[in-house]
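Sharing a chain and its predicted structure for anyone who wants a worked example. Both blocks are below, sequence first, tokens second.
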Amino acid sequence: MMRLIRRIFLLLIGSSAIRHGTLPTSADAVTAAAVTLTSAAVAWTWGVWVTVAATVGTADVKLLAITLENFTGAAAQGEVEVGTGLALAEVAVMRIQSTVGGLYFPNGTLIPAGTRIAARYRTSTGAADGVDVKLNVITGF
């Protein structure tokens, strides 16, 4: 009986349309290259915004998780900021500490269709440290 109720619930919420993806994308999403972010060479100063996705496509997406890998530079406290909008006019929608390898956001952050997504990085050192970033998203919700 519980199985039947679960199937009906999933059918009603349209869960069969939900698709998970990774940004940036490539022809093969499994090998999509991460975007490298570099902090400014001044402590706690943001590096430049780097495009993660020129557009999220024709459907809204929810940003569910961020993966950080390949840290370069001294071990330090740091932050990654994700933003949306045109180049040189980005608006931050999320900021996380970069001392972890990744973070999952249970409710996600909605990003409208056709929106550019960018990210930037800052650390507590006075050096141009780096980190690679990938974003996990869903569509069809």
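Comments welcome. The chain is about 10% helix and 45% strand.
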